[in-house]
Amino acid sequence: MTKASDLFVECLENEGVEYLFGVPGEENLDMLDSLSRSKKIELILTRHEQGAGFMAATYARHTGKTGVCMATLGPGATNLVTAAAYAQLGGMPILMVTGQKPIKKSKQGRFQILDVVDMMGPITKFTHQLASADNIPSRVREAIRLAEEEKPGASHIEFPEDVADEQTDSVPIKPSLSRRPIAEAKAVRAATKKIESAKSPILVIGGGANRTTTGRMLTQFIEKTGIPFVTTQLGKGVVDETNKEFMGCAALSANDFVHSAIESADLIINVGHDVIEKPPFFMKDGGTEVIHVSMNTAEVDPVYFPQIEVIGDIGNAIWQMKEDIVPSGSWNFDHMYKARAAEEEHTATMDDDMRCPIYPPHLVKVVREQMPADGIICLDNGVYKIWFARNYKAREANTVLLDNALATMGAGLPSAMASAMVYPDRKVMAICGDGGFMMNSQEMETAVRLKLNITVLILNDSSYGMIRWKQANMGFKDWGLTYDNPDFVKYAESYGAHGHRITSAKNLQETIDKCLNSEGVHLIDCPVDYSDNDRILNVEIKDLSAKI
Asked: Measuring CA to CA, which of 138, 261, 317, 434 is 20 to 30 A from 125?
């Protein structure tokens, strides 16, 4: 016979779980005791459940394996809700384990008790309350199976403390061998035939392509055909963006140079489309036709109704298309290259601006120059995300972690921490607005305690800059979105981290270089000048792209 909490940990070990991120409560103490004896799972104690969930999700994004996090009942469970939504929309498999009071006999009334299973229902793929220790193996296996099944997402198990203390003779269930189905040959043939007969096809690479090993196959397809490609924000890095065929990233909703390139196409090959990202094109009757290449069939709506669907493992589907296709000598991509040249020319007029506070285009240029090809930047949520999505050329998949799904603030720092754990030999930088950083800044203590090597770049404008930018764009007066910040250098030092303050553009480059090449946790307080955001992003780019 085995204690239920010991069996639960054995089941996690059986699934290959390496870390359990969390903030335990008294209802988790049996599980915590069982974890203390595990030789395979390391407990990562965080300072907030949200940070634990973000770390679990980022671990999952990098590895493809389920990230596991733990919280107590009531407020602990509610603090995981944002992380659950983050993983669910972003396609990252996580398993949340929350405690609960005894369910068979309790003398505590309704103290701290919420219906957590019902609460998690709308934002998870699977949620279940364990009522018997005998069911632990099947429920853990099912939760992880569903979390990792395409599209990946969040799962949840509630583990009441009286169930955790039960005895059982159940044993873990081994994961089955599971392979993704491959695309049907006739669908592939129809797609390649359509591409061959097009005049100006273009590839759009979305978030679904970033979850599977598609980059190699897509690169070979592009090399063989010469067909240009663009990405959504979640598709950045699937293919090296220094390739001459890269036509840009759809960071703005419309009226950018990249949209001009797409509008010139007569066929769009949409790879890994995910409805959580607004597509950089809208379909219309009689308009540009679309080939949908994905693990899942297309969700049809008034602006998305593809003519051909190639459904199956994306990497394999692209390989089949690459093997079958005969490049056409009549393809013409002149307008696409003209649009890309115009965008790069426009960026070049701004990215050498050495003003201080730092100009966003220059900031992106410096960070790109200082980060190696496999370096990882983890963006929180703010207007700087648009600048990085547009101007930062990603070299490898999952080296630009930005959230264009839930688009939550507070994830940048925990994401960088998990990245540094998965890839301890790579350079990792969290890029946060002052607002987003302060939402989970307490995890600086966790980063220092774990002896991680990360750089935290805080873009300081003493305001909620993204909303302020929108406020200006809507013609409202500048009101209600500014605040004061702590001394970030002293704040970092109070945790035992290294604090740095930027005083000039020249100082920015020197400081980033120093931090990336030093051990430990480094925080950089960087003042940023957003005064031209409205003019450039809302007016100038729209006018210039319209003239192409």
From this structure: 317
Q: Helix, strand or coil for residue 364?
A: helix
Q: Compute the distance between CA of residue 62 and CA of residue 57 in angstroms, rounded to an integer.
A: 9
Q: Which of 455, 458, 459, 461 is nearest to 512 (CA)?
A: 455
Task: Please state whether 115 falls in left (phi above 0), alpha (psi between -120 and 50) or beta.
Answer: beta
Dump pLDDT digits (tens) for 55-70: 999 999 999 999 999 9
- Is the peptide bond between 357 and the residue preceding it cis, with omega within 30 degrees of 0? yes
Number of C-beta neighbours around residue 64 at 10 A: 13
Q: Cα separations (Å) of 470 from 16, 196, 357, 534?
A: 45, 42, 21, 8
3-state secondary structure of 343: helix
* 480 conformational bin, left if phi > 0, alpha if psi -120 to 50, beta if neither: left
Q: Is the CB of residue 23 less than 8 Å from the CB of residue 386?
A: no
Separation CA 421–CA 336 (nearest Å): 40
Residue 322 and residue 315: Cα distance in Å, rounded? Answer: 10
DSSP 237: T
Q: Are residues 51 and 418 in contact, defined by beta-carbon separation less than 8 angstroms?
A: no
Answering whether pTM is above 0.90, one says yes
Whole-angstrom Cα distance, residue 394 to residue 239? 8
The two beta strands, 521-527 and 454-460, are parallel
> pLDDT for 381-417, tens place per residue?
999 999 999 999 999 999 999 999 999 999 999 999 9
In b/e form, how buried is each residue of 92-106, taking b as 16+ CB within 10 angstroms? bbbbbbbbbbeeeee
